[in-house]
Amino acid sequence: MAEEIIQVKDLKVHYPVRSGFWNRITDYVRAVDGVSFSIKEGETYGLIGESGSGKSTTGKAIVGVEKVTSGQILYKGEDITKESVRRKMNYNKDVQMIFQDSMSSLNPRKRIEDIIAEPIRNFENLTTDQERDRVQELLSIVGMPSDAIYKFPHEFSGGQRQRIGIARAVATNPKLIVADEPTSALDLSVQAQVLNFMKHIQQQYNIAFLFISHDLGVVKHMSENLAIMHRGRLVEVGSQEEIYKNPEHIYTKRLLSAIPKIDVEHRAEHAARRREIEREFLQDQANWYDADGRVYPLTEVGPNHQVALPKEQIKGGE
Ligand SMILES: Nc1ncnc2c1ncn2[C@@H]1O[C@H](COP(=O)(O)OP(=O)(O)OP(=O)(O)O)[C@@H](O)[C@H]1O
Ligand SMILES: [Mg+2]
After folding, report:
1. Location of each CATH 3.40.50.300 domain in the chain
2. Quick one: CA torsion of 163, 166, 171, 174, rounded to 10 degrees?
3. Ligand 2 mean position to 147 CA, how many Å?
């Protein structure tokens, strides 16, 4: 059994909201509000949710670029929410991030060689030749021609830029990559290509991925385990297989029913099912969410399957 590489424990990230003449803190946006899950070595873990549910904030907290309000993120047993721990453990080398928008995440004024070499320079002392060899190797891993090193980001298509982003993220031999909607800006056909590269790299180098997406359909092909997030909390957590086959939470059912069906034969049936689930969601919402519109804590409902059940169904709850 693979070991857990990251354990997120009751993570909260609250952003202060300031207002009025004195610019005082008058409220908090509870972007992440008590989230726990863990990722095993070399696995792709899916984090799914609609816009604003707190996915990126969770990802940034794991990478260490977002200040955590409370909770722990354990890496090799140490809490990396503290900057001193991150520094001591060389955490910035082991954990990398890939972003949705490759145009703004790759420096437009730098050539590809420097873009990919930058993280290597931070952590290793290579000669110019060694460094160039390494960059060429990384480019070939993501299926890019070697003369790409002389070019600038704007000279590539979105899919190619995303592959350059992957090469850069892989450059430091990381243990974990947080991929925040890495393909959602790409055409469907290119999306599949980039996803295949990510899968290939994950398997070849045993890198764990936190794969963030709003699309359950995409995650299905990528991850063994997944967590569904809504309004800063986790709604349902478990194996991909179990969640697709036996979704329990009304929100998960709703997300699943929203995945478009390609086969024409079942389209009408699918549309009817979708309407039924939408109706159920509107009727039952009050049971599944608290007064703040947030789900209740997760309860184990089966092997590797947890659900934020309605209050009256939580064992030992009042
Ligand atoms: N720096 C910030 N200051 C204040 N509020 C923020 C900040 N960053 C994010 N938020 C708020 O926190 C909530 C969660 O944002 P987050 O970006 O994590 O969502 P997301 O799930 O990644 O959404 P999307 O799918 O749109 O990327 C949102 O309500 C957002 O407006
Ligand atoms: Mg986001």
Report:
1. 40-68+80-231
2. -160
3. 33
